[in-house]
Amino acid sequence: MSTSAQTIATSTHDGQNSEHKQRKWQDYFTFNTDHKVIGIQYLVTAFFFYFVGGALAEVMRTELATPEPDFVQPEFYNQIMTLHGTIMLFLWIIPAGAAFANYLIPLMIGAEDMAFPRLNAVAFWMFPIGGTLLMSSFFVGPAEAGWTSYPPLSLVSSKWGQEIWILSILILGTSTILGSMNFITTILKMRIPDMDIHSMPLFCWSMLATSALVLLGTPVLAAALILLSFDLIAGTAFFNPAGGGDPIVYQHMFWFYSHPAVYIMVLPFFGVISEVLPVHARKPIFGYRAIAYSSLAIAFLGLIVWAHHMFTSGTPGWLRMFFMATTMIIAVPTGIKVFSWTATIWGGKISLNSAMLFGVGFISLFLIGGLSGIMIASVPFDIHVHDTYFIVAHFHYVLFGGAVLALFAGIYHWFPKMTGRMLNEPWGRIHFALTYIGFNLTFLPMHQLGLQGMNRRIALYDAQFQSVNMICTIGSYLLAVSTLPFVVNVLWSLVKGEKASRNPWRALTLEWQTSSPPAIENFEEEPVLWAGPYDYGVDSEMLDDDSSIEEMLAEVSAEAN
Amino acid sequence: MQSSAIDESKLTLNYHQEAAGHHGHPDHRMFGVILFLIADSMTFIGFFAAFLIYRTMMPVWPPEGTPELELLIPIINTIVLVSSSFVMHRGQAAIKKNDVSGLRLWFGITAAMGAVFLLGQGYEYFHSELGLKTNLFSSCFYALTGFHGLHVTVGVLLILSVLWRSRSQEHYSSGSHFGVEAAEIYWHFVDVIWVILFILVYLL
Hints:
The complex is a heterodimer of chains A (561) and B (204).
Chain A: H1 2-6, H2 35-63, H3 74-108, H4 117-136, H5 153-156, H6 159-189, H7 202-234, H8 247-281, H9 288-302, H10 317-329, H11 331-345, H12 354-377, H13 379-385, H14 389-419, H15 425-451, H16 466-496, H17 546-560
Helix pairs in contact in A: 2-3, 2-4, 2-16, 3-6, 3-8, 3-14, 4-6, 6-7, 7-8, 7-9, 8-9, 8-11, 8-12, 8-14, 9-11, 11-12, 12-14, 12-15, 14-15, 15-16
Chain B: H1 8-12, H2 29-57, H3 72-96, H4 100-127, H5 136-165, H6 178-203
Helix pairs in contact in B: 2-5, 2-6, 3-4, 3-6, 4-5, 5-6
């Protein structure tokens, strides 16, 4: 509280060249309640863990270059595989979604801050604490039962590593619950008066759906992990068949959270894509309400499909049929979104800049991930490919091809707003090309490996798979290299990048009505909702230059008074 | 934002203050409390679901050789906890009439009733033949009642913090008593959970 009071903006009112105090770099290392500081804190911390998780992935791919376990011990392989999954899900993609939500929601709806700024800061600081705790398990031997931590395996391997894993997930889960309370309250209660729920940006809709899933799903995972903890430490037998317990109950509780968690990871980035595509295609979004409501439909259906992860766990036939049907129905709202995005850019004045390239790349890769998802929703097919590399290929197409590419689209799109500097275009395109090629080289061949029966989560494999695995490994190295132009670009642009105007993309959502980077309490003047969020090409002659926007703003505010 | 200095820049940013509640900002805290309770209820739903799955899947439930649960103390506890909700509501009614001493009286009684519940629970734990590791049923029994007891403890602490803050006559008033309402809605929530838990574990 006190920090925001001390550093309050001293704004002048000439709009364009306002002199306001900027954040100091120290602010980003303190318990700060400004949602923009928290957003950046989330983003940078998440990227740190992305590089850690990525390094672990490279160790795994190096090991898998040859059939024999020669690079690392199989036990160590299991540990880094567990940590790679856990880090990428809980310390990278979920916090990265929270980063965008924190930074953008108040700006998009014209608010000064989140509904509960202090709670927001508490939620953020639990994230590095949980992350550090998870990393500390390297001192006692990390968990090695996979990110799913199925008992009884998780009860008989690295006891203390497993317990640390449980505690850190409980901390991180609490952090996301607190964050979601903030997102829902802010979106529903703090929009500027003119903005009704159907004229708010689609990113807000997707965060509503995401937050609802967090509130309903995460506590059930917490319940499962508390019981698992009892089994591990106190010697009860909730999930231990040796003592009369039932491991299947853990699987039900785990997947009741962890399937919706997939949507918790990807829905924010559906929202990001819905923002990025119309701006760079200069066309209104196709089917605003269809995209908005399909987010809610995905969230609802996401809660009743969990047992499709358990087709091989002795799930009775009638139950399999139910979960197969509901899973396939999810393809409908997801298909609506892909169709709407494609229709949005169809015939638009597309500028193929870095943000748009990542956006289009997202659609193509997510489509593949979605289609393979329908394949494995089918019980007979799933029984064939369960626990093979087909599954690995599928979820990397959804989570990397989907969420991460959209995340980069969002970064190229909002970096000017966040920092006041433009990113370098050519290096952005090189980043995209390397990522796209590296990603497909790594994960496309895994479909074939899975269909041929190569098991996942194992350090050694049959010699016949070696040549394809070598391709995957080379692809993963390319993927690692692809982050270099990005990191260099970001660091260089932070210092030397071209200065960004308040609205370099000529976008219509409210965050572009304030300076870049925004003033400390966001808007020097009351933001004016003078167009829908995606009314591109509707009044194009009025959008010609900045001065006419200023005139329009003045006109509209005069009318409002 | 209660400590934000009111200066010029702040005054230019007052476009949210039309719907002003406390401290110049609309008060969304109760909405946040309800969202939190929705999430918290999902934890209990997770535990209850696990319990029900065990119950349906095991051939004999509770497993053979489980000692009968004594019902007397839990029934007294149920009566105490349910009636404490009504007692507590009188405290909120009092503060709505600016009656701080009424608030302190009724909340004090509620806290005492909560303490009675916890003592009863403790007595039951110490005198039960069930151990944490006796069998699956006893583990569930301790996990469910223990997690609920933790919630009752937090509820008593919330009530005590309301009592502590209400030492000064001005802290709560008819127009501003979020802490009172939040503690009360939490207490009702814990109460409802107990009724479900009592039916599931003791009666079914």
